[in-house]
Amino acid sequence: MARRDNRTSKREKRSRRQFLGDVGKGMLVAGVGSSLAFELDLIPSAFAAGGDPLQFGELESLVDRMEETPIARLQPALKAELDRGTSLKTLVAAGALANARAFAGEDYEGYHTLMALVPAYEIAEQLPSGQQALPIFKVLYRNTARIQGAGLVGKPRLHKVEPAKVSFEEAAKRLRGCSRQRDMAGAEAYLARMVATDPAQAYQAMQPMVHDDYEVHRIVLAWRAWDVLRLTGMEHAETLLRQAVHFCVKREDAGHASELRRLLPELLEQHALFGREIGKKKGDAAWVKALAKTIFRGSRAEAARAVASALAEGFDAESIGQAMSLAATSLLLHDPGRNDQGSYGRSKGSVHGASVGVHAADSVNAWRAIARVSNTRNAIASLIVGAYHTAGQKRQVSDDPFHQGGATEVDATDPKRILGQLDDAVTGRDQRQASRLIAAYAGGGHPVEPVFQRLVGYAVSEDGSLHAEKYFRTVQGEFASTVPELRWQHVIALARVTASEYGTPAPGRDQARELFPA
Predict the structure, then answer these.
(1) Residues 304 and 361 in one domain
(2) Mean pLDDT rounded to a whole number for the chain
(3) Pick from 362, 518, 470: nearest CA to 122
(4) Which of 96, 154, 302, 357 is most buried (CB neighbours < 10 A)?
(5) pTM of whole model > 0.70?
């Protein structure tokens, strides 16, 4: 705990006059923008390198240990915490706060770890009691390893920030402009102002900034930063939501998203979607399949226009979301596989990790989740941008589904035998056979739960190139929310991804298994 004591002594050295001066400068920064403020030497320490560190109350000691414990001793230390009565939920909360403070949504491996925390927690709830810690320890191990490997112990990227002295409404109006101008100081000050009033409304006010671009990590991080608050508590909303602000500001590229920024308001106006409630018309399987085909095969603009038209016709968000999700899964099922050896354990022919299909599926899942918790305007915009995001990628995949054609005969009447063969296909890294087996299983009318029970172990044991937990939970969620005639496409894709990712064990797996033997 030496680092925390050192930070406390530094804070005590700050005079009252220095502190009040910094606060005043912070308000001026929010008004004039960070670029001019730097020229005028008005950036307070909270906005510059250094400044007062974030503190997390009762969780601070655990957060510190998440950052500082040598990686070889981390999992035994976490096991000792559980033995003392600390809950898995508390461990996840501390891991999320350590992640946000260290990475601020600016580190590739760091924000992937943040995105995996809630899925890992949800997977844990599906496992036997003696095994529930395994998926969580997997992600927390990755979290600490990256904090230490990136040299961020004692050098966090997030510090305290002073809220702007403007109304909530004014802060909401200015946030997206700050993002577009790469004004980090202003964006953080306005977010802090809104969160102090109402975190839920602050999240709504952030959405126009999120809708400004369609990069996959922007969307998934924006969702998971909100989603994890159900484990940390709303008192940490500012810390976690700042990650999305940092990502948007750092990745601002108006040229990349210029068509989207022009098209979205055009479609909202053209179809009179401003102030309109989302309809309740349910699309049947044929309608969902047709819209999915349009999104899968069309350009980004064509897909956005199709979804805007569907909203204008009164179709509900769930029907439209199903089509988006199936289009994303089609990308995965048509993917010929990587043509080279990639990073993070991705081999030639693989489709796991940062593949076009997995990225598309995870992003649609996030868009749908954001739409479900959003006001009407943001929900409509999320669906349109989500369709735009998913489409325009057909050129990256083949015309025919990877697993169809020349299929080996499978006895669909014996589900246990199919599941045994599935294990053989996964451990043999036979993506085609794994997919075909699940297609046959589905055709036999068997229940899905035994398949998930069989595949979840691989989602925990394998590294998955940072995506295993997210994608497993994406498939479970999309299966549950898709019409019965089409839902098995998601599970077929999961079987393929599982076979693709097998063979690269998650770092720390063997040690965790020793701590929690089956």
Answers:
(1) yes
(2) 90
(3) 470
(4) 96
(5) yes
